[in-house]
Design brief:
3 helices, 6-stranded mixed beta sheet, alpha+beta
């Protein structure tokens, strides 16, 4: 009996890990919904998804690293009140109270302001619900949506300038960006729906549970 339990506990663990791996999907797309190529720029820039230990601390003006960095901040988080954003999926500026969300930060800066442009598409593991692109809203939402333990400094022109563009991808699971290199950099907070396990992972979990039940019957 113990051997059987251990066997199916292992399967159950694999199912849960597989589900988490799917849920944490965050990649730079080869081609975004609007046809923007993967992290292309003039001059050459780079794009990087940061893990929890790689997030800059503090998050401050003028990173000057020629890199578009993306990192997960918080979530899943259920909103206790309406969240104001600069652009919400489907129109408007509100993500409703009771919605379970996750937040991500996009940051780009170059030591040569005005020297070039960067285009990229970023795919998330769940539907994109809203975008925060203005200095005031970025500063106001740091305490709720900022990564735990990370200091977010407040400074002028945090967000996007007039020549910068960020938009929902056609599949609504991605965003497309076009940034011009200006000081102190470009910043976007992306709000997504809470991620869920993939159907395949859930099926594996169900199979494991059924297997436990059958094993118990045979032992009786």
């Amino acid at each position: 009996m113990l051997k059987s339990i251990l066997k199916y506990s292992t399967v159950l663990g694999i199912a849960l890990v597989a589900g988490q791996a799917q849920a944490d999907m965050l990649v730079f797309k080869a081609n975004s919904g609007s046809g923007i190529n993967d992290c292309s720029g003039n001059p050459e820039y780079s794009c990087e998804v940061l893990g929890p230990t790689d997030i800059p601390n503090p998050v401050s003006a003028n990173p000057n690293d020629d890199t578009l960095s993306v990192w997960k901040e918080v979530g899943p988080l259920t909103l206790a009140s309406d969240l104001t954003v600069n652009s919400a999926a489907g129109g408007g500026t509100i993500i409703s109270s009771g919605t379970t969300i996750q937040s991500y930060m996009l940051q780009f800066d170059s030591p040569q302001p005005g020297a070039g442009t960067l285009e990229a598409g970023i795919e998330f593991g769940s539907e994109v619900l809203g975008l925060i692109t203005a200095t005031g809203l970025l500063n106001a939402t740091d305490s709720l949506l900022g990564a735990p333990g990370i200091v977010y400094e407040t400074f002028n022109a945090r967000g996007l300038e007039g020549n910068d563009v960020v938009d929902f991808g056609a599949d609504m699971f991605s965003v497309d960006v076009f940034f011009r290199t200006t000081s102190p950099g470009d910043w976007v907070r992306v709000i997504t729906a809470a991620e869920v396990s993939e159907p395949g992972s859930l099926a594996l979990l169900a199979t494991a549970l059924v297997g436990v039940g059958l094993s118990r019957r045979k032992r009786r």
